[in-house]
């Protein structure tokens, strides 16, 4: 499964905020420079994350963005959900997610497969918090291996 650029960059920005804030808001231009992204694009992502309740904005000279709650309380799934990206696109069949009868068959065997994949991805991404992503790559890989990934 491939994530969109919006999702990938949103995850990176959330991780940057978690790592760099240290109790102080982080400004969008700082995040943009660190992640090598345009400030306007970073602003678009930050708006969605703020609207999703994951970050808060502070105005003024010392303003910027900070997490709205502890990094242990924000899951990867929360971030993906805030960025309005569904688990899978409806390219396969728009009826798969809606439990509507398939236009090609009344008994669509693809629907339960896609729904199971959606549930699996939601379960996995819900079990990984932003604070988990701050740890070393080897530790995260080991944890995922213990989970059978």
Please give a quick description of this structure:
The chain is mainly α and 149 residues long. The protein is built from seven helices and two strands. Helix 1 crosses helix 3 (39-51).
Question: Tags for this entry?
Answer:
7 helices; mainly alpha; Arc Repressor Mutant, subunit A; 149 residues; two-stranded antiparallel ribbon
Overview of this structure, please?
It is a single chain. With 149 residues, the chain is mainly α. The protein has one domain (5-146): Arc Repressor Mutant, subunit A (Orthogonal Bundle). 50% of the residues lie in helices and 5% in strands. The chain has seven helices and two strands, in the order αααββαααα. The protein has helices at 5-20, 28-35, 39-51, 76-82, 110-126, 130-133, 137-146, and strands spanning 55-58, 64-67. The protein has a two-stranded antiparallel sheet with strand order 1-2. A hairpin with a 5-residue loop joins strand 1 (55-58) and strand 2 (64-67). The longest helix is centred in the last third of the chain and has 17 residues, at 110-126. The radius of gyration is 18 Å and the shape is globular. The two termini are 14 Å apart. The mean pLDDT is 85.
Number of helices: 7
| Domain module count | 1
Radius of gyration: 18 Å
Estimate percent helicity.
40-55%
Q: Can you identify the CATH class?
A: Mainly Alpha
| Strand percentage | 5-15%
Q: How are helices and strands ordered from N to C? A: HHHEEHHHH
Question: What is the fold's blueprint, element by element?
Answer:
Layout: H1 5-20, H2 28-35, H3 39-51, E1 55-58, E2 64-67, H4 76-82, H5 110-126, H6 130-133, H7 137-146
Antiparallel strand pairs: 1-2
Helix pairs in contact: 1-3, 2-3
């Amino acid at each position: 499964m491939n994530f969109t650029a919006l999702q990938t960059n949103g995850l990176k920005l959330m991780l940057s905020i978690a790592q760099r804030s240290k109790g102080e808001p982080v400004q969008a231009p700082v995040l943009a420079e660190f992640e090598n992204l345009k400030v306007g694009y970073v602003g678009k992502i930050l708006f969605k994350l703020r609207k999703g309740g994951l970050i808060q904005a502070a105005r003024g000279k010392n303003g910027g963005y900070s997490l709205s709650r502890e990094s242990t309380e924000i899951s990867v799934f929360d971030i993906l959900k805030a960025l309005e990206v569904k688990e899978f696109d409806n390219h396969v069949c728009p009826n798969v997610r809606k439990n509507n009868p398939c236009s090609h068959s009344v008994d669509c065997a693809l629907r339960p497969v896609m729904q199971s994949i959606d549930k699996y991805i939601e379960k996995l991404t819900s079990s990984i918090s932003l604070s988990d992503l701050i740890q070393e790559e080897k530790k995260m890989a080991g944890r995922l291996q213990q989970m059978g990934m």
